[in-house]
Write a structure and sequence with these properties.
Elements lengths: L1 H24 L16 H8 L5 E7 L8 H17 L4 E6 L5 H9 L5 E7 L2 E7 L1 E7 L2 E5 L8 H13 L5 E5 L20 H8 L3 E5 L11 E4 L8 H12 L3 E5 L3 E4 L4 E4 L3 H9 L2 E2 L2 E5 L2 E10 L2 E15 L1 E2 L12 E2 L6 E2 L7 E8 L4 E5 L15 H4 L6 E8 L1 E2 L6 H4 L4 E2 L3 E5 L14 H14 L6 H5 L12 H41 L1
């Protein structure tokens, strides 16, 4: 009998050990969260499966982390375990605490991981402690790093992006077109304070090889996408030809272009007169000579005098539309729900040619409006103390979209004399009718705007695999707007429903007690 028991125990242990060994290479997780934010996306799994050589990730983490970061180490270990499981043995990771060993500190520094100073409470007093919370990626003869993990939100994107970057044979190329401006001399090693696109450029350069172009010479055919940052005047003939021919050779262009030049400080607006709009109209792309207004909008601070005190008061400003109405069928925007536009115009989709396809991306809300030339009144005063939902009742207006299909060259009549490519069906144009969308001190500071641009660049450069990961991480989840009647109904339901349910439960319990008493009474009669 004892032999049988021991035999059963040995068999059970063998099964447990076998299942644990299998779990190292066969990994699965049930994730019921919205967007599957607690499990790896398909593109992350594919990134590690496609590794040609062994990738080692060294996680430099201090053991004595402050309380608010105590779970970070565990989270990192879990996600790296998942990467390892899907890598089929090509990825290995290890945790290292360099805090007490000088050799490990030097190793971490060599791998671009540096300690961060943090204030912690210990023994009832504040102390400054140096901690390590970074990842180093070692692949072949290359090294990349995530120096400091301040927030585990978005960590999957950072890790997958780094894996793709370090394992790539060559990064795809993005060109920036921007108007050249005279800038004061910069100190070596310091960022350019006058760079209007510093944030966008920095984030794109994490995954792409970024260059600048003035379009005065043809773009290289190996440029995967061109980002056009907007102009306020006309292009030269050579610039028009280079822009046109880049599209004709199958290039992809992202336009962030205003139709109206507006200045909030002077409260004046005027149309932009540029031959760029002639080029776009020839392709079948038309931007209306208007400014869209939206009851769902951002605020501007207005200084008001209250006695001897001057106070800043926020005023809803309809020409700063907040976008949470997007095309849920499109990969670029389907998981984005908060973007900010500044003086945008409407895309006129009625003039799209029959051979040109259009897919909308961003819409204003159900309470939209517009102002058109020549009365471009953008003054603040008329919107103060006003119900914007009553003022604006137009249906949603399209402010961004993608054009694809047949594009004919703007210079097709000069095909013989200029030796140009006459047409293409390969290129794509993505247009947002607002150049401030990507500028410092304006739209570039909005996370949704940044996510949109990065998704759009990935999409246009045929690198859509990272969009799925980035889109899983969202910070703003606005509640749906409810009418006044519905809000009152929900309010009273919250107040009365618990009491009503409690009364019903009490009545049912009382009736049950009466029934039991009756049965007991009948038994003893």
């Amino acid at each position: 009998m004892k032999k049988n028991i021991w035999f059963d125990v040995i068999i059970l242990l063998a099964i447990i050990i076998f299942l644990n060994l299998v779990s190292l290479s066969v990994f699965t997780r049930i994730d019921l969260s919205k967007g599957k934010i607690y499990s790896l996306s398909k593109s992350s799994k594919q990134a590690v499966k496609n590794l040609e050589d062994r990738l080692v990730i060294k996680a430099y983490f201090s053991k004595n982390l402050p309380g608010e970061f105590a779970d970070a180490r565990r989270f990192v270990q879990d996600i790296l375990s998942e990467y390892q499981a899907y890598s089929k043995g090509k990825l290995r990771f290890e945790f290292i605490d360099p805090s007490d060993e000088e050799s490990l500190k030097k190793e971490a520094q060599k791998n671009q991981i540096f300690p961060a100073s943090m204030r912690v409470i210990e023994n009832d007093k504040f102390e400054i402690r140096e901690v390590y919370m970074g990842l180093a990626f070692l692949y072949k003869d290359k090294t990349e790093s995530i120096p400091l993990i301040q927030n585990t939100r978005g960590l999957e994107y950072d890790i997958s992006k780094t894996i793709k970057k370090i394992a790539a044979i060559g990064l795809k190329k993005i060109a920036f077109y921007e108007v050249e401006k005279e800038e004061p001399p910069q100190m070596p090693g310091y960022p350019n304070a006058n760079d209007e696109f510093a944030t966008i450029r920095q984030h794109i350069s994490d995954s792409y090889e970024v260059s600048k172009t003035d379009l005065n010479k043809p773009l290289d055919s190996n440029i995967d996408a061109l980002l056009f940052t907007g102009i306020e005047d006309s292009l030269s003939l050579m610039q028009l030809i280079c822009l046109d021919q880049y599209l004709m050779q199958g290039g992809n262009i992202l336009f962030f272009q205003d139709r109206i030049k507006a200045n909030l400080q002077t409260q004046q607006a005027e149309p932009i007169n540029s031959n760029l709009f002639d080029l776009l109209r020839y392709y079948g792309i038309s931007i209306k000579n208007n400014l869209v207004a939206d009851a769902v909008c951002g605020h501007v601070q207005v200084q008001q005098q209250r006695g001897i005190i001057r106070m800043a008061r926020p005023v809803s400003y309809p020409f700063f539309p907040v976008i949470n109405n997007v095309n849920k069928e499109n990969l670029i925007v389907k998981n984005l729900d908060y973007m900010q536009l500044i003086f945008a115009s409407e895309l006129d989709t009625t003039k799209t040619g029959k051979d040109l396809r259009f897919e909308p991306l961003l819409y204003t809300s159900e309470n939209s409006g517009e102002i058109t030339i020549p009365q471009l009144d953008i003054s603040l005063q008329k919107y103060m103390n006003q119900n914007l939902k009553i003022m604006f009742s137009d249906p949603p207006k399209i402010v961004a979209g993608i054009y694809s299909g047949l594009f004919k060259s703007f210079f097709i009549e000069n095909v013989e004399t200029m030796n140009i490519i006459p047409q293409t069906t390969e290129g794509k144009i993505l247009i947002v009718t607002d150049s401030d969308f990507i500028k410092e001190g304006a739209g570039a500071g909005v996370k949704g705007n940044l996510d949109f641009v990065l998704n759009a660049v990935d999409y246009m450069a045929s690198e859509g695999s990272l969009i799925e990961i980035r889109s899983k991480e969202t910070e703003f989840k606005p509640l749906k707007e409810l009418s006044s009647g519905k809000r009152k109904l929900i309010k009273w339901l919250n107040i009365l429903l618990p009491s009503i349910l409690l009364i019903i439960v009490g009545i049912l319990h009382y009736r049950k007690e009466l029934k039991q008493r009756k049965i007991i009474g009948e038994l003893y009669e």
